[in-house]
Write a structure and sequence with these properties.
Helices cover 78% and strands 0% of the residues. It is mainly alpha-helical. It has a single domain (14-419), classed as Growth Hormone, Chain: A, CATH 1.20.1250.
Length: 420
């Protein structure tokens, strides 16, 4: 990739100047809002059916396993086929799952195993879907707008985290979980329509290659292992995911038992975290020239750690909500810098596999960490052990980020562009 010379400063939210990116961006905001509504419904329904942190952990595990084991295989597939056609398949499959959950809930036949199975199958689809969407971004915008596009892409999920839980919190009690599942199913149509409306997208990876899928997967792992910067970025993202991001699965416990907030309190906690993430995404995207990205990476990681620690010690729901707002800002900036570094360094023919590895750290490992947090909370006394489990994770994240200061502090995107 090369960067076209220009004397004109980039506009704010420059990625939205590109039609194909804007179409996908709008579609994902709608779809992800529905996804967050379904996440709220699943977590609340599981806890209502079982009253156990263990089963919340099992819900996380059912989602985590495919997102840990399959994305690299998915990335190898993504690097050799039309990414848009793949997205048609995955989005349609996820829509059908949501409708089935709605039907089971409305007919009062749903049980914990239905929810775990739906979570597992949805995660299998996401193992292909998420790396494909991330690998597609550099094909929708020029390199000069890539960080802007990645920041705005983060807003499609984290911004939806503001709207979705708020809507779910209002709708869960009067309409029930089945309605939230159904709304999520309808929301997938927004992405399908956006994909249909795109024009002139070079959505292929390295379709001309003749290596087997197995050799392609091995090549991806070898590339990541030999590139020490990629390895460090993935490692940092992985550890933050396991020990930091996993707190979200325990939020139903904090909402219902720690602060007696009920479903509305659960929605507030998720919404404030989403609001912070939205501020972080749009704030970073609004800056025309972000400098000293390595230093920003370190500061945002430490800030995330401190806010999670303070959240675990919070005396009430509203203080916790404020802290989750701040943590949302920090973790979004942290993840955007990591993703941008990876996208710039990696060539197109292997981008699907590298974004698949990143997807494991971004989506799969937090759920695995949530299983661990749920188990620790159970051993420490059930609902009373949840704060200590989150506290331990926040401390570990802080220590990891502090140890990486010498490696990342001087890193800068401008110095990496010659690798693109």
């Amino acid at each position: 990739m090369s960067i076209p010379a220009t004397s004109t400063p980039a506009p704010r939210f420059a990625a939205l100047q590109h039609r194909n990116f804007t179409l996908l961006w709008i579609g994902l905001i709608v779809s992800n809002t529905g996804t967050w509504m379904q996440n709220v419904a699943q977590g609340w329904l599981v806890y209502q059916l079982t009253s156990s942190p263990f089963w919340l952990g099992m819900l996380a595990l059912s989602f985590a396993l495919p997102m840990i084991l399959l994305p690299l295989f998915g990335g190898a597939v993504i690097d050799r086929i039309d990414r848009i056609k793949l997205l048609y398949f995955t989005q349609t499959g996820a829509m059908l799952i949501a409708f089935i959950l709605a039907a089971l809930t409305w007919t009062n036949t749903i049980n914990i195993y239905h929810i775990l199975t739906a979570s597992f199958i949805g995660s299998v689809l996401l193992a292909f879907d998420n790396p494909a969407r991330q690998a597609l971004i550099p094909d929708l915008v020029p390199l000069r707008d890539l960080m802007n596009a990645i920041s705005l892409n983060s807003a499609t999920y984290t911004g939806a985290a503001l709207i979705g839980p708020a809507l779910a919190g209002m709708m869960l009690a009067p309409f029930g979980a089945g309605t939230l599942f159904f709304v999520n199913g309808v929301s997938y149509l927004a992405v399908l329509i956006a994909l249909t409306a795109m024009r002139n997208v070079q959505a292929f990876g390295s379709g001309r290659q003749h290596a087997t899928i197995g050799k392609s997967m091995l090549a991806g792992l070898t590339f990541a292992w030999k590139n020490k910067l990629i390895l460090a970025l993935l490692g940092m993202s992985a550890l933050a995911a396991i020990f930091g991001r996993s707190y979200q699965t325990l939020l139903p416990i904090f909402a219902r038992d720690t602060w007696n907030g009920g479903p509305q309190g659960y929605g507030i906690l998720l919404s404030t975290s989403g609001a912070g993430a939205l501020v972080g995404a749009f704030g970073l995207a609004s800056i025309r020239n972000v400098k000293r990205q390595g230093a920003i990476l370190i500061v945002s990681g430490i800030t995330f750690s401190l806010t999670i620690i303070a959240f675990a010690l919070s005396p009430n729901l509203w203080m916790a909500a404020i802290l989750l707002f701040l943590s949302g800002i920090a973790i979004t900036v942290f993840g955007t810098i990591i993703s941008t570094f990876i996208q710039i360094i990696v060539p197109n023919e292997i981008r699907g596999r590298m974004m698949a590895l990143y997807s494991i750290t971004l989506i799969g490992l937090p759920s695995l960490g949530a299983m661990g947090s749920g188990s620790i909370a159970e051993m420490l006394g059930g609902s009373s052990g949840a704060p200590l489990a989150v506290l331990m994770g926040g401390i570990i994240v802080g220590l990891v980020v502090l140890l990486t200061i010498p490696f990342f502090w001087q890193r800068d995107i401008e110095k990496l562009k010659h690798l693109a």
